[in-house]
Design brief:
It is built from 5 helices and 8 strands, in the order βααβββαβαβββα. By secondary structure, it is of the alpha+beta class. The protein has a single domain (about 5-174), classed as Gcn5-related N-acetyltransferase (GNAT) (Aminopeptidase), CATH 3.40.630. Strands 1, 2, 3, 4, 5, 6, 7 and 8 form an 8-stranded mixed beta sheet that branches. Strand 4, helix 3 (about 90-105) and strand 5 form a beta-alpha-beta unit. It is globular. The protein starts with a strand and ends with a helix. The relative contact order is 0.20. The mean pLDDT is about 95. Bound molecules: coenzyme A. Coenzyme A binds next to strand 4, helix 3 and helix 4.
């Protein structure tokens, strides 16, 4: 049995190892990483999936952004599931859990860069991001959005910018 729970600091090493395996170390060069670098995930919106042996087998995180003229929104990613745990619905469970929690917390829209054939099942589509731009190169067909609140991305245009809490500021305050 796998449990999805809020991420905790001691998940760090296992999460990073899973992400390196899933995406390779070049993942840090992605355009979406520019919106995450030096920031903390959105409050209450980072989750880990833990198997019956206590091993971290999945991760998903959301980040605060400004979606151009649409204003505050979230960036989802990375999402990854351990190779051995794939194909059993865990990726979907992580997505649904994260999106439900984002909606419960009052967020209106979520953007991501990823495979449309996978994310379409959760309602993500490229149409709503067509006039938005990321701070770097991206394949338009992979730049997707989902409205949690109807109309949240209506007429959205302009540059997407990071707006999350700075990781350093948080460390200094601790
Ligand atoms: C994508 C990922 C999170 C899915 O996790 P999972 O636990 O296997 O997901 P689910 O069991 O909920 O869904 C599996 C389904 O998604 C499909 N799928 C998986 N990756 C896909 C992709 N990149 N594009 C399209 N479909 C995909 C599978 O074929 C399977 O289809 P089926 O339901 O018709 O059999 C996992 O494969 C993973 O970590 N991949 C590497 C990292 C990655 O690519 N992350 C995000 C995608 S950009």
């Amino acid at each position: 049995m796998v449990t999805i729970r809020a991420e905790i600091p001691s998940d760090f090493a296992a999460r990073e190892a899973l992400l390196n395996k899933a995406f390779g170390v070049k993942r840090m060069r992605k355009t979406s990483e520019k919106l995450r670098k030096g920031r903390l995930p959105a409050q209450g919106l980072a989750f880990s999936a833990i198997n019956e042996k206590g091993k971290l087998v999945g991760t998903v995180r959301l980040w605060n952004i400004i979606a151009g003229s649409a204003g505050p929104a979230l960036l989802l990613g990375p999402l990854a599931v351990d190779e051995k745990a794939r194909g059993a619905g865990l990726g979907s469970a992580l997505m649904r859990h994260a999106l439900a929690e984002a909606a419960r917390l009052g967020h209106g829209a979520v953007l991501l860069v990823g495979d449309a054939p996978y994310y379409a099942r959760f309602g993500f589509a490229a149409g709503v991001t067509q006039s938005l731009h990321l701070p770097g190169p991206v394949e338009r067909a992979r730049f997707l959005g989902l409205e949690l609140s109807p109309g949240a991305l209506d007429g959205a245009e302009g540059l997407v910018a990071a707006s999350g809490r700075l990781a350093e500021a948080e460390k200094a305050a601790a």
